[in-house]
Amino acid sequence: MPNPPAGKNPIGEHRIVHNCEACAVRDLALCSGLEGNELDDLERIVTRIALEPGRTLFYEGDEARNVFNVTSGAIRLYKLLSDGRRQVTGFMLPGDYLGLSVHGIYAYCAEAIGETHLCRFPVKDLNQLLDAYPRLEKRLLGMTRDELAAAQDQMLLLGRKSPVEKVASFLLDLCGREERLGEDEIDIVTLPMSRSDIADYLGLTVETVSRTFSRLKTEGVIDLPESSRIVFKERDKLEELAEGMI
């Protein structure tokens, strides 16, 4: 897939107006904990953007000039193998931080699944604020640790778990991430990603993912009122399946 010319905005991107104080994911985002002048200084360097479905935020190998926080929608992260196959390495949801780089180069591609809104921070400007505000630096370090921990969990998921364990773990993880936005336990999860996305993330075929969903429904563990909606009917059993206990 060819890279766009250096410095050119991704196709389908447009700027949006947003208020940090009113942001629904502020407690999860990079600006969490900042107040007063600190928040004002961060707002001066941020650009709020929206990506249309299927549009690329950045490509693997691009110069890492910016980092991002997702405020709504979802981003798929992926790498292309030498034979053209795609390996999805993660899904970024509201509140998530992305843009980790290796030697100043993005290590993966990032693409909007549906319409997605993000805050974009130029790395150069952000580094200056990190020097000025240790609390912001501490927050960024914590978010980076979370991203690395997610990568380690993905390695376990791909290497050691059966298809049923993988799908059950994936659904529970998605549920937990949605619960960050509220205080109560939820029993319905909306899937922004396709079965193909899930298969490429879990290292399975689309057919295996679909059969596993059907099996979980037949066994009364979940319900599927729509292809993109999962109802947890027996969450305890789903947790046991994820751990390989049954």
Could you characterize the architecture of this molecule?
38% of the residues lie in helices and 24% in strands. It contains seven helices and 14 strands. Strand 8 and strand 9 form a beta hairpin. The termini are far apart.
Key traits:
single chain; 246 residues; alpha+beta; Jelly Rolls; Arc Repressor Mutant, subunit A; 2 domains; 5-stranded antiparallel sheet; globular; disordered N terminus
How would you concisely characterize the structure shown here?
The protein is an alpha+beta fold and 246 residues long. 38% of the residues lie in helices and 24% in strands.
Strand order in the largest sheet? 1-2-11-4-7
Can you tell me the CATH class of the largest domain? Mainly Beta
CATH topology heading of the largest domain: Jelly Rolls
Roughly what is the average pLDDT, rounded to an integer?
86
Task: List the secondary-structure elements in sequence, H or E.
Answer: EHEEEEEEEEEEHHHEHHEEH
CATH architecture of the largest domain: Sandwich
Number of domains: 2
CATH homology superfamily name of the largest domain: Jelly Rolls
Distance between the termini: 43 Å
